[in-house]
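Problem: given the chain below (153 residues), write out its structure.
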Amino acid sequence: MTTLIPGLPPAGVEAVLDAARAVDAARANEAGSTWEWALEHVVFPGPQPGTPIILGLDVIEHADGSDQLEFLLQVVWTELGQLAVDAAVNVACWCDSDHASHDVDALRLTVADLTLLPRAFREGAERLIGWLADPRDADYWRAKAGLPARQPC
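Solution.
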């Protein structure tokens, strides 16, 4: 963690690791979802297409091979070079115009001071843990967000 987020004090490192352990405990029965990190994004890479992810977890659920529900928790760089914690629930799009996917619930906490990162990460982790306890059904999340239901294949 000290390599991924240089300058984070030891207590902050431990707080981030505690929050990650809580997420791991909440998804103890998950298969195939692991934490990923990008050492090339440790230093702000400058504005670029996409979001430079430093650390993240992506839990993906597939239904019938044609639908997808995704739960995300990430530490990223903003376009302005600040760290942020992103958490989201994402579903495959079934709109008439294909948008690929939709965030149906999302949280972004931008961190102006590195000492605030552990608190933001814990808040994102708690949100993710709550989402993981909700139904693992993309149609449930689409209905909650007022999006079109999946069309039968």
